[in-house]
Specification:
307 residues, alpha/beta, 2 domains, 5-stranded parallel beta sheet, 13 helices, elongated
Length: 307
């Protein structure tokens, strides 16, 4: 069972801590356990209930009416209501509640609905990414187990791959060529998969090499495929003190190609970029870069992106 503070609930549900306390006192919405020092702690059931309450409350229902619902009635009301296409917070809450129930069909249904309402790219940027960020908060607090993470990761991976598969093929002649790969030992693939989609939907040609690629393989790939750019994501690999070494080696192997670097490890302040490398902080920055590269002849570097 998870152990959440009231500030955790505020972050995860979007409901202010002050409001949560009022709902507890007036309506008995939640029943936290208090520690020996009188600090409220909440369990998984409390979070699930609050997410469901927040969904109905954000749709305009009175909290006094919601408080009268049984657990079964509350869950049924949330599942049966039509999602507001413009309320991303509400959709993220629904996904979190479904994840905590390990309800894969509902997770899939909610993501499909978001794609239908917002388009594939919009659903990933405005629903899936905030959802993953909320999971990250829960992971740091020790309130998400590996089964939760695997359920969500595999579901989103399937959705992105299906989105890519539905795109028309792109011929490599007269378009930008990209190589996408993860460093050896790196298995966090969702961001790279979405980059694959972003590039292909904009008419770029992609050689997608996926997870766990030894950097030594890039020399032959570079000579054979002759890409305009190579892109990699560094989330857990390499070790923090070896990131600079990896970037320098990548530059030595591909000195004449644009290198696009993404991921938390690249954001370290002491990382020095070679002249042909671009550090991308946000996925929206990557999208803007791709669109600018599409309209630029020849090889491309963006000095502003290095600052």
């Amino acid at each position: 069972m998870g152990h959440f503070s009231i500030s955790d609930l505020e972050q995860l549900s979007g409901i202010k801590a002050h409001t949560i306390r009022i709902w507890e006192q007036r309506y008995g919405i939640l029943r936290p356990v208090r520690t020996a020092t009188n600090i409220r702690t909440y369990c998984d059931d409390d979070l699930r209930r609050l997410l469901n309450v927040a969904t109905l409350y954000n749709r305009g229902q009175r909290i006094s009416q919601i408080a009268r619902l049984s657990e079964h009635e509350l869950a049924k009301a949330v599942i049966s209501c039509d999602e507001d296409a413009n309320n991303c917070c509400q959709q993220v809450n629904g996904l979190l509640a479904a994840m905590l129930r390990m309800d894969e069909p509902q997770l899939s249904c909610l993501m499909n609905r978001a794609v239908c309402n917002m388009g594939f790219e919009g659903a990933i940027l405005h629903v899936a990414y905030p959802f993953l960020q909320r999971i990250g908060v829960m992971w740091q607090a020790g309130n998400v187990n590996p089964a939760h993470e695997h359920l969500v990761t595999n579901l989103l991976r399937q959705k992105i791959m299906a989105g890519i598969d539905n795109l028309p093929p792109v011929q490599p002649a007269d378009v930008k060529r990209w190589v996408l790969f993860l460093p050896e030992g790196e298995m966090h693939e969702l961001a790279l998969l979405f980059m694959n989609y972003v590039l292909r939907v904009r008419g770029h040609h992609v050689l997608y090499l996926g997870q766990n690629l030894p950097i030594s393989e890039l020399k032959t790939i570079n000579e054979t495929y002759q890409p305009d750019a190579l892109c990699t994501v560094m989330t857990a690999v390499p070790e923090r003190d070896r990131v600079q070494e990896f970037i320098d080696e990548l530059h030595q192997i591909c000195p004449e190609r644009t290198l696009v670097l993404y991921g938390s490890l690249v954001q370290q302040e002491n990382v020095r970029l070679p002249f042909n490398a671009i550090k991308v902080r946000l996925m929206t920055d990557f999208i803007a870069l791709v669109e600018e590269m599409a309209s630029s002849p020849g090889n491309y570097t963006l000095e502003a992106a290095k600052t």
